[in-house]
Specification:
The chain contains ten helices and nine strands. The protein has 305 residues and is an alpha/beta fold. Strands 1, 2, 3, 4, 5, 6, 7, 8 and 9 form a nine-stranded mixed β-sheet that branches. The N terminus and C terminus are likely disordered.
């Protein structure tokens, strides 16, 4: 049986699985945490934006990490993490399987988002996007509108902002990354500085100490929406605590020899490989297989395996 097939097989929890709380208690904690963090973060962001404080995007980063820690989402960072500290005009390109991806990426690096203009009007998330200085783009744009949007993005990169983008253009509804589009990838900033492109793969690997199976995957990706939003939230609470691996892949620098299409294909390949590799590693860990000794697993898990 292959490692990925193990993800959909009946499994028993390992003795070293992490702590877990009842879903109702998880829900109460989550609501309390968001009720405290969102107003505080909003105030800090408004002050930082008004004063144009350098490093103001760190407010989002540490707020997202605090939310993840409080509600039981364990983030495991691997790959070229140190490269994110280098001062270059940078676009971070990630796969997009779930609305939770936004929180995961906020916790990864001090960066801002490029999102569809429709997100601006979403309840709560639209407000958070505006507070987060998201760059909104129109999906039904003409050539002139697209050029203006690319100019704004180039100016943001020149000002030192890192920008996150989901090149799939929306949630794929599955863990395997869909087609990456290259339209909004930037090769140069407004001043002509080459842009660094960094692929980031997000992989939901475990829930309540067990590798994530198909049922849990359907909840996270919202593939099945029976019962409405409250039913989805309840089923998501039943998956906590959750382990998520965020892998930072090698960065490429855009130049005259590398086009946007080639860069998009490179990012798609890296993200696809990252998701598959991390899911395999956690599947091997579930059975105690020695092949789980992969660098993407946290030290405590590698020792237990």
């Amino acid at each position: 049986m292959s490692a990925l097939a193990l993800l959909d097989s009946p499994r028993q929890p390992r003795s070293d699985s992490q702590w877990s709380l009842p879903p109702l208690l998880n829900g109460i904690i989550t609501a309390a945490v968001l009720g405290i963090i969102i107003p505080v973060m909003t105030l800090l962001r408004c002050v930082a934006i008004g004063l144009r404080i350098p490093g103001r995007q760190n407010v989002l980063k540490y707020s997202a990490r605090l939310v993840c820690w409080c509600i039981g989402i364990r983030l495991h960072f691997t790959g070229e993490v140190a490269a994110l500290r280098e001062a270059h005009p940078r676009m971070l390109v990630a796969n997009h399987a779930s609305w939770l991806d936004i929180i995961m990426l906020c916790a990864t690096a001090p960066a801002f988002y490029i999102a569809s203009a429709g997100v601006r009007d979403w309840p709560l998330f639209g407000f958070m996007a505006r507070i987060g200085e998201t760059e909104f783009i129109s999906q039904s744009r003409g050539v002139r509108a697209m050029l203006r949007e690319r100019e704004r993005i180039g100016d943001r990169l020149d000002s030192g902002d890192n920008l996150f983008i989901f090149p799939e253009g929306g949630r794929s509804g599955r863990f395997r990354p869909g087609t990456f589009h290259s339209a909004m990838l930037m090769d140069k900033t407004a001043k002509g500085t080459p842009v660094h492109i960094t692929p980031v793969s997000i992989c939901y690997v475990a829930a309540r100490g067990l590798p994530l199976g198909q049922e849990g995957a359907d909840v996270i990706t919202m593939r099945h929406r029976e019962g409405g939003m409250f039913s989805i939230i309840w089923r998501l609470l039943c998956l906590l605590p959750m382990d998520v691996v965020i892998e930072i892949h090698p960065t490429i620098e855009m130049d005259d020899t590398l086009g946007r299409r080639e860069a998009s294909d490179y990012c798609h390949k890296r993200c696809s490989e990252g998701v598959r590799r991390n899911r395999r590693a956690w599947a091997f860990y579930a059975t105690g297989d020695a092949r789980a000794l992969d660098e993407t697993l946290p030290l405590k898990v590698r020792t237990a395996a």
